[in-house]
Design brief:
It is a single chain. The mean pLDDT is about 90. The protein contains 2 helices and no strands. It is elongated. α1 packs antiparallel against α2. The two termini are about 20 Å apart. Helix content is about 80%, strand content about 0%. With about 70 residues, the chain is mainly alpha-helical. Keywords: Membrane, Transmembrane, Transmembrane helix. This is DUF3311 domain-containing protein. It comes from Aquirufa regiilacus.
């Protein structure tokens, strides 16, 4: 596993932990009752985690394809 893969995986785990903690915390009164702002407030951390996981998968696939090309040569 390359350095960028490890880093993106650890960052994704961190964002997931922040998301779980954020769901257990109360929503600020300024945005209570505003549906889309509540969704953005809580699920932005989850979307950051998903983005990091997508990058992890991309980096992993790139590394595997480079290793396969090196094996063929």
């Amino acid at each position: 596993m390359s350095r960028s893969e490890k880093l993106s995986l650890f960052i994704a785990i961190g964002f997931l932990i922040i998301w779980i903690l954020d769901l257990n915390s109360p929503t600020p009164k300024e945005i209570q009752g505003m549906f889309w702002q509540e969704i953005g407030y809580h699920y932005s951390w989850l979307m950051f985690a998903v983005g990091c996981l997508f990058y992890y998968q991309f980096a992993r696939n790139e590394r595997i394809s480079k290793e396969d090309k090196n094996k063929k040569n």
